[in-house]
Amino acid sequence: LKMSWFWFYLPLHLLMAACLCHSIKAPTTSSQQSFKTDLFNFYHSLVLADGKETTIHLLKDIPKRYYFVLEEGGALAPFSITVTPCDVPIEWSIFLHKASASFLGKAARGDRDTHEASKPQKAPSIVSTIFNYKGNSVETYMGMSSHSALYVLEFLSTERDTHITVYLTTDTTSGHLYPELPMDPRIDVIGIGHTTVTLTWKHSPSVLQHGENVQYCLLVNEKHNYKSLCAAETAIRSSGMKLPPTLALSLSPYLLEPQQVMILSNSELSIINKASSGEVRQICMGTKNAYTVPNLSPSTQYYFDVFVVNLLTNASAAYTGTFARTLEEPEPKVMELKDGKVTQVVLDGKKQKFYSLQYQARYKKIKFTFQLCHGHVRVHITKNGKTVALENISGLRYFSLKGKLLDTYLVQLRSTEETNSSVQVQVSPHFHKPLFPLLPESLKIKSFSKLRTCNSVTIAWLGTQEESKYCVYKKRIEENQVWVELRSADRCSGPESRHKSEKVLCKYFYDINLQRAVTTETIQGLDAGTLYLFDVYLFGPSGIPVRYHSKVVKTRKKC
């Protein structure tokens, strides 16, 4: 009896395949016909695991099939299948193959005649399509199975290569892999400002039951909503950015790429991915079901998606996404410039709008000074409505202008790139002692490759005819930090923003002959094969510093 039972259950997959391959009586649709042919390769096909999320990679126009048999001793058994497309819409179907009872009866008795067993047997079989779907939404099929049925899932992508996740389970009573969504899974927009949007959503039952292992994560972008966290991560990667392994578990700054900025405050994790197509923000806020998204651009449409994430399994479920447009930016007020006062202006590169400053001359000869702090800025100066200067500035730039008393000057500033820029502006009488130091012809720092050793590097920079103070700072950096350090350098910030341990030395020098106004410095005590960022600060009579362009140098590995 035990052997007969063994012969019925152990080779059930093989017996079903044999019966289906030799005699399949099914509807003659093209999909089912191709499926019949494929059953001859059953022994090389993939079996779908029960109780485990499976990632499946699909090639364009090439169907992929997975098989499974659910055996419950003749009783009907519930099961569910959840499919999550991670990119483009896909087609997927579930086929049910059911062999006749007479064939299974013979299989259960176990035919001992090897001669008879070697002959091809014909057994009637019924094949039917029990589910079919096309799209990119997360879909779940729930059904009942008997021991005499073989199930086949067929997946097809007609647009391009992609990947999906599939979860099959027969344990429908002891919890869920995916967090549960509330009865109403919509996200409500309850407040809109010029740079903020406030959202709220109903709590997930999973958060209320297992709050310590489940949290909410919000995705913000300017393109469209995403129907799954898997689809969002795929879209971000395809835009040229790299993600940490998991959105919900990206708690370490060491996992970030140079294109990413991570902000962790008040128990909220925020990761900003930067690309030419715009920003994608990811914020994980624990179990709070309301959030105000800050630092948005005015008059811009944003799309918001909330995902409830199981931290133990990394499985997630998506709320129904929403969108909102921030309010129009009010007309910018014209700021008045005052004699000798330095004003710093931050320019929004995304909107490419002008920032206006106005000055009414109290002297005939005046001088405008612009110190570029970050990015690239275009300056347009008009006097009584007529253009007197129009230029893209870099570094420190002076404009000496002559006019009449009470002439009205309007300065318009605009960022020339999509990222934000900042600049310091000063206007003063022509005879006024300048706040900014006299600058050399170039603010570049030069390094000498032949003078590099394992523990030292030699750098040089130009000086001026005016005796000034120069301070050198160094900072050890990693390969993947170079882009961020050079890109984010603020040329208006002084050494006060640096750590004391980064200071190397300060020195005074000048030369009446500009051809000889150059100095060198050898920095000792460095580590072999290590990247260092070097900065030089120039201080004028007023004490306001000007930062040279940062220089990255790597010491030799072997000497």
Describe this structure in words.
It is found in: Secreted. Keywords: Glycoprotein, Neurogenesis, Repeat, Secreted, Signal. InterPro entries: FN3_dom, FN3_sf, Ig-like_fold, NDNF, NDNF_C, NDNF_Fn(III)_1, NDNF_N. GO terms for molecular function: heparin binding. This protein is mainly beta and 559 residues long. It is built from eight helices and 36 strands. The longest helix has 11 residues.
The count of helical stretches stands at 8
The proportion of residues forming helix, as a percent range, comes to 10-25%
Beta-strand content estimate: 35-45%
CATH class of the largest domain: Mainly Beta
Number of domains: 4
The CATH architecture of the largest domain comes to: Sandwich
Beta strand count: 36
Return Rg in Å: 35 Å
N/C terminus separation:
80 Å
| Poorly predicted segments | 1-41, 101-120, 242-267
| Net shape | elongated
Write out key terms for the chains shown:
disordered N terminus, mainly beta, 559 residues, Jelly Rolls, 8 helices, 4 domains, seven-stranded antiparallel beta sheet, Immunoglobulin-like
